[in-house]
Amino acid sequence: MSNGVTTRTAGHETRVPGRVPLRVGRFSTVWRLPPVVVVAVGAVGVVLAGAAVLTVGDYPVGFADVFAALVGASDRATAVIVLDLRLPEVLTGILVGAALSLAGALTQTIARNPLASPDITGITQGASAAALIAIVLGVPSGGLAGALVLPLAALVGGLGAGLLVVALAWRNGLESQRLVLVGVGVSFGLTAVVSYLLAVARIEQASQAKVWITGSLTGRGWEHVIPVGIALVVLVPTVLLASGGLGALQFGDDTARGLGVPVERARTTMLVMAAALAAVATAAAGPIEFVALVAPQVALRLTRSARPPLIASMVVGALLVVVADLVARTLLSGIGTPVGVVTAVLGGPFLLYLITRGRRETAR
Amino acid sequence: MSTTSTGPEPGTRPRRSLRSRRAGLVLALLAAVLVAVVLSLAVGSLVIPPGRVLEALLHPAASGDADVVRSLRVPRTLLGLVVGAALGVAGALAQGFTRNPLADPGLLGITSGAAFLVVLAIFLGGVASFAGYIWFALAGAALAGVLVFLLGASGRAGGTPVTLALAGAALSAVLLGLTTAVVLSDQTTLDQYRFWSVGSLSGRAADTLIPVLFVVVPGLLLALATAPGLNALALGDDVARSLGVPVGAIRIVGLVAITLLAGGATAAAGPIAFVGLVVPHVVRAVTGPDYRWLLPCAALAGMVLILVADVVGRVVAPPGELQVGVVLAVVGAPFFVALVRRRRLAAA
Question: d(Cα B7, Cα B14) in Å, to the nearest integer?
């Protein structure tokens, strides 16, 4: 709990020894070193790994040339390769990783269940199903039409699935367990829609669709970066400003209500935000597997927090996707492995390592 | 969250009413299994009246319709019964041991372990029959089960429900990632793997029924043996320990049972996801959280669900068939959502 450190009663301030409070206006938190270190180290890692991705490919570019291209002091060919082709892919990876991971941190917190990621609660499947419908109806996945229509369809599908889950789970309020289970049901139904569409589609559409639903950064351009960027610029501050009551939700609905948190409203707001983030991310890069589940749990263990930390989760998610992208482009470059495969194979063992050396845990 | 409408505690509601509801559920499920078996024997691209079915079963010499019943539908129905019971019980156990309502055998990594070894067998060994897949699937399930338990239990405090669930989810993601990597790198492997991975009862019963029985039956017995211990574990590890329950041993037995059941079912019919997750929730709404009732009822409900889905799959898309897995998701998902909405859920 972040805001239980000091209590102010009539101008009198009680301090807990050894804890330094940080306050800006209505917002307060406690100074703790681990989250700051994780965010700082993670951000440096994202920049380094991102720069490394910019150097590799069919046409290798040195670090110095990459830097020159970024500041606009390189020859025309290098600038095209670095700025127009590779930079959008790297930025898409970073932004998508951050958005998925934040969405996962939110759903895990409001459901109080580490397994409750947007993949499990139907949001990702909604986005996939809608995009597949578009592909089966004849929208090509490449070109300008694909770049505009597919993300839009995925966005509508993901948000629609999120709202459907809330609407179906609402019954005199929004109980977290019912929310998650309804999400699982909706997600199963949508998965069936996806496999049905894959089966009925013509073979060339089916292979297009297969590539799309595996999650890939290949061929992503600025038209993919900008929507995710705008969404993050709008949604991240909103989430952070509205996240004050999240800590109280950890204690259970009754306690949270007793502490003055409007439980249903907080939960609905956060779920809609998570749905928006996951839908935008899926629209840009397809459903990159496992990031939303693993990154918040890794961040939680690295920062030793009581619940998935929002900012640290974003950094860890971005780092996971960028490093996976780097591995896919270097070690596995011959096979053409989609980044979604690598995030699972990289993130899984790391989470397992953290679990095996972790301290005793209680359900969170 | 914590309010349950069907607690086992004496005093929360009249004892007789709970007991009679449970007995009623068992009877209703037994009747439903019977109906489902008859349907499964009679319905298909060739509809055979129940009277002729009975005749075919009683008089081995008859031919024509009788041959269809005996050589195709009887093994398929038996396989459905075995797989349904195994998945239902495995799901209930998985939810009980992880204390997580989202847990199912797939989430513990067992299904993906089976899938990964099957893919390796196809890719490296050129194995190409259901009779061959079954041993690799069983080995993969067993390896994944052992690995999940070692990883989940090797934290400083030993395995807790949360570490077990997370270790399973992480391992399952890794194995699925590796499976996808192999499948994407080799088209012929993908082509064969697709047939195994759809999750279906058709065309596999003759090869897989007998070996699977040797795995599933011990699994069911072990599962029933853990039921009283699971009831105590639901109160939390510390309370269970102070009640004299050997917590660590019960967890090991439970995980062995889950591995046998889910591994056997996956080896026989391919990965079928919905049953293990949904059946325990449906059953728990009537029986309450007492695993001595929950496990047998989950077995019966699993049988009904699989057989009915299989029968529906045979008739909805003539002349072809829809696989059990697909039918389950299409029919089961709305039903599950309606159930979750209507009832106050008993806590897992």
Answer: 11
Write down all domains in chain B, each with its CATH number in brackets: 15-342 (1.10.3470.10)
- Which chain A residue lies closest to B282 (C-alpha atoms)? A181
**Phi, psi (deg, nearest 5) at residue A112:** 50, 45
**What span, in angstroms and rounded, lies between the C-alpha atoms of B208 and B314?**
20
Instruction: Look up the ipTM and state it.
Output: 0.70
Quote the CA–CA distance of A75 and A106 in Å, as a whole number.
Answer: 44
Q: Indicate whether this model's pTM tops 0.95.
A: no
In chain A, the domains with their CATH numbers are 36-356 (1.10.3470.10)
Task: Give B 196-225 residues with CB within 8 A of chain A.
Answer: none
- Written as tens digits, the pLDDT of chain B (348 aa) is 344 444 444 445 555 677 888 888 889 999 999 999 988 888 877 777 777 777 777 776 666 677 777 777 888 899 999 999 999 999 999 888 888 777 777 777 888 898 899 888 888 877 777 777 888 888 998 899 888 878 776 655 555 677 777 788 888 888 888 887 787 777 777 777 776 776 777 777 777 788 888 889 999 999 999 998 888 888 888 888 898 888 888 888 888 899 899 988 888 888 887 788 888 988 888 888 889 999 999 999 999 999 998 888 888 876 677 778 778 877 778 877 877 776 554 443
The interface residues of chain A toward chain B in range 133-162, judged by CB-CB distance below 8 A, are: none
| Cβ-contact B193, B137 below 8 angstroms | no
